Amino acid sequence: MAIDHPIFANRSSHPERLILWMAVCLGGGLAIGFLFQPDAWFQSLNRPWYAPPNWLFGPVWTALYLLMAYAMHRVEHDGFSHPVRIARRIFLTQLALNFLWTPVFFGAHLMWAAFGIITALLVAIGATILAFDRVDRTAALLMVPYGAWVTFAAFLNAGYAFLN
């Protein structure tokens, strides 16, 4: 079944790469989330007034990881040129920072160190968006909701750190 929408135009070849990126992004995110779930320590913290309910994080991150995977797939569709290789390296850097934040915050309970990581992550997301834009504008735009959510998450991180 073909999807007739411009966002999917000319991007149907190499579905195995899309599956790979979905496994890396969503699979990695699910694994990290499973290993470092909010525990009694987190439940005992003073919550910022703007903290959403905990149940919201799973669906939001699932959607964001899928958007990230599809964005990376779109970038790779243009081959493995120098701009694509740079975009992939920056993407993997931001993904590593993303995956690092959870064990530092929920595992080690180091809220200020986690804030440093999420700040670096925001810079890396911005760099990813710029690198993706050089290759595929739609891929860059697909990363914007992720950047917005991580910006909110940084404010949450800071709120928890200040209150506790």
TrEMBL record:
Its main subcellular localisation, reduced to a broad class, is membrane
Classification via Pfam families: TspO_MBR
Q: Keywords assigned by UniProt?
A: Membrane, Transmembrane, Transmembrane helix
Q: How does it sit in the membrane?
A: Multi-pass membrane protein
Check the UniProt entry and state the signal peptide residues, or none: none
Question: Origin, by domain of life?
Answer: Bacteria
Q: Name one GO cellular component term.
A: membrane
Q: What is its subcellular localisation? A: Membrane
Q: Where are the transmembrane segments?
A: 18-36, 56-75, 87-106, 112-132, 139-163
Q: Output the GO biological process annotations, alphabetical, semicolon-separated.
A: tetrapyrrole metabolic process
Family as reported in the entry's similarity comment: Belongs to the TspO/BZRP family.
Name-wise, this protein is Tryptophan-rich protein TspO
Species of the source = Usitatibacter rugosus
- Encoding gene per record: crtK-2
